[in-house]
């Protein structure tokens, strides 16, 4: 039998442990089993990958707070495909988000001044921490794709005159489209290609305590169709445009944008803070050929650690992939012991990063989100193609892919509290039989034979 590479998480003290086939509890002959049937002839989406965000806060913590030795370790464990978990997608804010040390855009002007020709545009802020880390990540994993999303246009472009709340003024639609072009070109000048952008992060949420901008679906369709896409074409940019970038509970938003903007939009980006992952499939089926991406999901204090929080990432991640997503991106790459830093006036933060970097002690910790993400990114590599995967028990959640080297990756999660006997069959032939304890995760890599 071909030797399988297996990673197993049984609980907080036993996370993402590489084991041999024999180390998994074998199933006794004749024991009742849940069958997982894999079909390589049934294919779905191609993966771009898995990752998180170098927010201003995350980049600062990794680049400035960690020692050089700690930073090398963290970046290797995050991005190296052999020594680490091989993260391959970054979705970074364009300007300040809620997780930034200050409010900033790429074209800030004194109150009362405007700059429609973007004479003062600069990405100097990103050159301090964000860009050096992106370059370091790319050295470790050249397959990384860069996504970017603004939380707000520059304050002078908005009805509120602030980076908090307000809408984009109609008179600045063209300037804002040029703002995206300048951003993409500035990153290109640094040797970095922006793979995809969204016009606005969470366009239906307008909080007053961090950067935000209301952008209704009709406005987004107008902006993309009549300004953003034409500016990309004029400038010769191949960066993809993904609409929406918000929760599953409002599929009417991307449906409206796709109907009105049509070929100007390449796909839809989703978040997990409301609704169900099936919304991804509903929109995908309505607009065949439009890509599906999952661009943000954060863990946090609202779901108790460890088991409930770990289980949530595993079960939801599997469902995100089973509903056609080409990416699975969590939120902050790193936060500190206070779940920050956050923008001034934010208040108490409850989010959790992939890394926890204690600013008081200097300690570096890999959180449960790191290990849950590892179950996907370690075995499902960029370019992998999802294949058919069905389970005879509703408690065993599964997703499977064939990688570009023809290896087969399977991610399983036992969503019950009881142990389950599992038999994995590839094209009808059993490749692994084992016992999965309750709430455990197993990732299996079947090398090309």
UniProtKB/TrEMBL annotation:
<dbReference type="GO" id="GO:0006680">
    <property type="term" value="P:glucosylceramide catabolic process"/>
</dbReference>
<dbReference type="Pfam" id="PF17189">
    <property type="entry name" value="Glyco_hydro_30C"/>
</dbReference>
<keyword id="KW-0326">Glycosidase</keyword>
<comment type="similarity">
    <text>Belongs to the glycosyl hydrolase 30 family.</text>
</comment>
<keyword id="KW-0378">Hydrolase</keyword>
<feature type="domain" description="Glycosyl hydrolase family 30 beta sandwich">
    <location>
        <begin position="383"/>
        <end position="443"/>
    </location>
</feature>
<dbReference type="Pfam" id="PF02055">
    <property type="entry name" value="Glyco_hydro_30"/>
</dbReference>
<dbReference type="GO" id="GO:0016020">
    <property type="term" value="C:membrane"/>
</dbReference>
<feature type="domain" description="Glycosyl hydrolase family 30 TIM-barrel">
    <location>
        <begin position="48"/>
        <end position="380"/>
    </location>
</feature>
<dbReference type="InterPro" id="IPR033453">
    <property type="entry name" value="Glyco_hydro_30_TIM-barrel"/>
</dbReference>
<dbReference type="GO" id="GO:0004348">
    <property type="term" value="F:glucosylceramidase activity"/>
</dbReference>
<keyword id="KW-0732">Signal</keyword>
<dbReference type="InterPro" id="IPR001139">
    <property type="entry name" value="Glyco_hydro_30"/>
</dbReference>
<dbReference type="InterPro" id="IPR017853">
    <property type="entry name" value="GH"/>
</dbReference>
<dbReference type="InterPro" id="IPR013780">
    <property type="entry name" value="Glyco_hydro_b"/>
</dbReference>
<protein>
    <submittedName>
        <fullName>Glycosyl hydrolase</fullName>
    </submittedName>
</protein>
<dbReference type="InterPro" id="IPR033452">
    <property type="entry name" value="GH30_C"/>
</dbReference>
């Amino acid at each position: 039998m071909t030797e399988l590479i297996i990673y197993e998480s049984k609980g907080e003290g036993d996370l993402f442990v590489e084991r041999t086939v024999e180390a998994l509890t074998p199933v006794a002959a004749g024991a009742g089993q849940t069958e997982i049937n894999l079909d390589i002839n049934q294919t779905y989406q191609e993966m771009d990958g898995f990752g998180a965000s170098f927010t201003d806060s995350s980049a600062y913590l990794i680049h400035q707070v960690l020692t050089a030795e700690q930073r090398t370790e963290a970046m290797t464990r995050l991005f190296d495909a052999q020594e680490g978990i091989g993260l391959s997608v970054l979705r970074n804010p364009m300007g300040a988000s809620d997780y930034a040390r200050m409010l900033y855009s790429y074209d800030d002007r004194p109150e009362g001044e405007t700059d429609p020709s973007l004479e003062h545009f600069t990405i100097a802020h990103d050159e301090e921490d964000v860009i050096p880390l992106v370059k370091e990540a790319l050295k470790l994993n050249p397959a990384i794709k860069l996504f970017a999303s603004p939380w707000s246009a520059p304050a002078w472009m908005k009805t509120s005159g602030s980076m908090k709340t307000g809408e984009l003024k109609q008179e600045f639609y063209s300037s804002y489209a040029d703002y995206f072009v300048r951003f993409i070109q500035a990153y290109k000048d640094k040797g970095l290609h922006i793979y995809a952008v969204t016009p606005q992060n969470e366009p239906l949420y307008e909080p007053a305590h961090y950067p935000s901008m209301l952008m209704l679906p009709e406005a987004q369709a107008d902006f993309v169709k009549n300004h953003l896409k034409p500016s990309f074409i004029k400038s010769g940019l191949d960066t993809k445009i993904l609409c929406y970038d918000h929760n599953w509970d409002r599929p009417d938003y991307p449906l409206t944008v796709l109907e009105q903007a049509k070929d100007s939009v390449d796909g839809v980006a989703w978040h997990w803070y409301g609704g169900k992952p099936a919304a991804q499939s509903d929109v995908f089926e309505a607009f065949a050929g439009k890509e599906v991406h999952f661009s943000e999901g954060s863990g946090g204090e609202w779901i108790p650690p460890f088991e409930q929080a770990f289980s949530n990432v595993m079960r939801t991640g599997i469902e995100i992939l089973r509903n056609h997503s080409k990416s699975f991106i969590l939120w902050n790459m790193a936060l500190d012991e206070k779940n920050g830093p956050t923008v001034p006036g934010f208040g108490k933060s409850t989010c959790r990063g992939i890394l926890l970097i204690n600013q008081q002690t200097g300690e570096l910790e890999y959180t449960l989100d790191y290990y849950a993400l590892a179950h996907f990114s370690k075995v499902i590599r960029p370019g992998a193609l999802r294949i058919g995967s069905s389970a005879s028990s509703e408690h065993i959640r599964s997703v499977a892919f064939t990688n570009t080297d023809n290896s087969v990756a399977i991610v399983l999660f036992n969503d019950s509290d009881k142990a389950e006997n599992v038999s994995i069959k590839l094209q009808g032939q059993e490749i692994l039989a084992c016992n999965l304890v309750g709430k455990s995760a197993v990732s299996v890599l079947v090398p090309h034979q």
